Amino acid sequence: MDSIYRFLGRSPKNQLGPLEQQLLEELWKCKTATVRELLENSELELAYTTVMTTLDRLYKKRLLERVAEGRAFRYSPRHTREELKKAAAEETIRELLSSSPGASLPLSYLVEAVSEHDVALLDELQHLLDRKRRERSREKR
User: Fold this and answer.
1) Among 8, 21, 84, 136, which is least packed, fewest CB within 10 Å?
2) DSSP letters of 26-84?
3) Residues 6 or more apart from 80 whose CB is under 8 A from it?
4) pTM over 0.85
């Protein structure tokens, strides 16, 4: 999961562009593919070299695995969509908490956002907090 956090940073070279996101989505759908397979089995209307270069960038960002297959590479995602969403949310919350000397202000922002989205989620948040407290209490024993 550490490699996920590296690309989630605010550095422009680590953020995903629209084409990178699109190709990652395509790979999540088909699980594994070569550049040619992606172009043949999707509605992508891109040059072969564009897809090849973009997949190479995703590989270098450690978001894809690749294995040689003849003169080409077969690519597959290293992480699920859910793992990336979770990592992005965790990183955003970490940044929010570290942006203020006191953690209560960012936490109040979180509670406000949750309540604006869906008041019922406040009950779920309370349930998660209670469960985490019980787990921590058991760990201390």
Assistant:
1) 136
2) HHHHHSSB-HHHHHHSS-----HHHHHHHHHHHHHTTSEEEEEETTEEEEEESS-HHHH
3) 28
4) no
Give the integer Cα–Cα distance in Å for 11 and 7.
Answer: 8
Q: What is the CA radius of gyration of the chain?
A: 20
Torsion of CA 118, 120, 123, 128, to 10 degrees: -60
Locate 130 and state its tokens: 């209670």
**What are the per-10-residue average pLDDT scores of the chain (141 residues)?**
48 73 94 95 92 96 95 96 87 78 74 83 87 87 74
